[in-house]
Amino acid sequence: MKKESHHAGADVSRRSFIKASALTGLGLAVAPGLTFAKGSKEDKVRMAFIGVGGRGRSHLNNILKREDVLVTAICDIDQTAIDKSLNMIKKAGFKKPNTFTESETAYLDLLAQEDIDGVIIATPWVWHTKMAVDCMKAGKYAGVEVSAANTMAECWDLVNTYEETGVPTMILENVCYRRDVMAVLNMVRQDVFGELVHGRCGYRHDLRGVKFNPGVTFGEGANGEARWRTQHSLHRNADLYPTHGVGPIATMMNINRGNRFLSLTSHATKSRGLHDYILNNAAGGPDHPNAKIKWKIGDVVTSTINTANGETIIVTHDTNLPRPYSLNFEVQGVKGITDFDYDHRRIYIEGTSKPHSWENMNEGAEGSPSWLEKYDHPLWKKYGEYAAGSGHGGMDFFVDNAFVESVKRKVNPPLDAYDAAAWSAISPLSERSIAEGNTPQYFPDFTRGKWIWNKPVFALNDDF
Ligand SMILES: NC(=O)c1ccc[n+]([C@@H]2O[C@H](COP(=O)([O-])OP(=O)(O)OC[C@H]3O[C@@H](n4cnc5c(N)ncnc54)[C@H](O)[C@@H]3O)[C@@H](O)[C@H]2O)c1
Question: Where are the domains of the chain?
């Protein structure tokens, strides 16, 4: 697989998009029909999975609904996860795939299997980069869960391996495809907010019941993510999970495509939430051995990013205190602002909104569609009904669809190795900033200058 072919593919599809959009207006070049379900037997995409725990099986569930794929291999070190997946595959009427489960490096045997085009990686964080790099080296597209990398060296590994092999990696950031997020992206592209000045986002999700499961147990003997996720809070004071928030803002601000992250400073609060949870949990208490643990992570970690085009972005990581879920989105430009999440979606546009008053984006003027209906993204208009059954309110359909379609058409995915590197770099850079007394840290230019010429590609395609 040659690098040039992917670049050429991306250029061709971008050119044809630009041509089509010039004729029909931005975002309206949508052909009717669900092309993703029409692959002939010969062009079925041969998919494999590494890590089929909670998240891997939710990807599997989406993939098994498609008619244009085969599932040829699955790998997990946990036989129960393999068995559950085989059941799903059988129920969906697919042929039994090969399974790999012997050791933590059994995935390398999977990668040696020839009939695999794309691999979805949904393992614990420390495996993401290594597995994605090995996929690319084996000539197979990698679709990697978030975050994609833990260290700056890993960020560079993703970029360098992509450039050396020409085989793409896609960061599977599903929130970029959330319906309200894509409607706001559409508003940004249609200049509703004018030139952007500021963005805000975060991962504010009370994960205490995920980090300890059951009771106050984590590590060996625990369930699900408590087996591995919790240790990061023990050793790292950083924004450990930046991409759900920053991915959407990055697509709106054209990061790596006309803009880039320049630097950040990060601040962390004291760490109280996890300790308090152990003290007050029926299975814990002051005498429980876990009550002696000194957690490294600050409960609320706040980073401020500067971009090359002069915007700032505030990113918050907040997973250890009692609170309702929020990704805390705010997008602000010279004409107005939106502040939105699942529980509130408001907008203020100068000249349109009543002075100094928010409008509800779920509503519109008397007899008119609401803001969200008016700016509903063409991809949601096209696939929304179909997507409804997939995970997280439908957005998971879109992220998996984008990956499969990119593999099928042999083009660059819309979220690539450079995005994976720039977004994931927030973790190690925030860690260093906090450790060095909130000093500024500089993002490397992962694109090596190409951001100046790269054009936006995300969700600017008729199908994905
Ligand atoms: N995008 C989203 O909305 C979303 C949601 C949940 C989780 N995630 C991400 O997905 C990833 C997986 O999370 P999860 O909730 O499924 O965790 P999980 O613990 O339920 O599953 C991880 C699986 O990987 C397996 N595994 C571990 N090491 C392995 C190895 N070396 N080789 C093969 N398999 C291995 C485990 O046995 C387990 O089955 C994480 O990165 C998480 O952050 C993303």
Answer: 3-172, 177-378+415-452
